[in-house]
Design goal:
By secondary structure, the chain is mostly helical. Helix content is 54%, strand content 0%. The protein has 2 domains: 51 residues, no CATH class; 29 residues. It is elongated and about 60 Å long. It contains 3 helices and no strands.
């Protein structure tokens, strides 16, 4: 689980906070950048999905099929974004 610096100590993978009066090392800065890039990509995808009208107004088909449809759409979005064939 990836998280921002507000979730330090929760068990989530977070970046490194800058120590008071000192700077982060180049390695720590690079790790924070890499983590933030991954986190931002996930947040963009979640934002994209939550802005879909079908998720806002409701599904007009059988509700029992909706989770399967949503999983398929999420899988296709992951494949389109990351170019991976399976997860």
């Amino acid at each position: 689980m990836l998280a921002d610096l507000g979730f330090l100590g929760t068990g989530a993978l977070t970046g490194t906070r800058k120590p008071p009066g000192r700077q982060l090392t180049d390695v720590q800065r690079a790790c924070n950048t890499a983590l933030n890039r991954l986190r931002a990509a996930v947040e963009r995808r979640i934002s994209h999905l939550t802005n879909w009208k079908v998720l806002d107004t409701g599904w007009r088909g059988r509700l029992t099929d909706f989770p399967e449809v949503l999983r398929t759409v999420i899988g296709l979005e992951i494949q389109r974004t990351w170019g991976m064939s399976q997860f």
